[in-house]
Amino acid sequence: MENCVKYEKNQVEALTALISSLDSRIDGLVKKVEELSARCKKAEFYDLDDLSKLLKVSKRTLYNWRMSGLLPLRKLGNNFFILKDTLAAIIAENPKMQKGGLYE
To answer: How far apart are CA 19 and CA 55, in angstroms?
Structure first.
């Protein structure tokens, strides 16, 4: 009987340690998610419709630029996006990319 009690006590201590470890890991993951969420809220993205209007080009042209590596679009689900800052840097290097004036 005494061996059973020791065994159960050891099991409870092991589970308590495991739960404590998992709790601290979860806290770390929650902090990372909150940081990423805050960064995503600050970042502005353009989708293909926005880019087409801003650059005054067709979606086909955007696709061609993407395939040639000129426009580094990121795919999320079924849509493509680019960060506003990334687009600004690309246009600064290639001002002729945009037809008919400056983008906003």
So the answer is: 53
SS (H, E, C) 2-69: HHHHHHHHHHHHHHHHHHHHHHHHHHHHHHHHHHHHHHHHHCCEEEHHHHHHHHCCCHHHHHHHHHHC
Report which of 67, 75, 68, 102 is spatially closest to residue 87, judged by C-alpha positions: 102
Write out the two tokens for 80: 């493509």
d(CA 30, CA 5): 37
Q: At residue 101, what is the residue type?
A: G
Q: Is the pTM of this model over 0.90?
A: no
| Cα–Cα dist 80/87, whole Å | 13
Q: What are 17-31's pLDDT values in tens digits?
A: 999 999 999 999 999
| Alpha carbons 64 and 48: distance in angstroms, whole number | 12
| Cα dihedral 17, 21, 24, 29 sign | negative
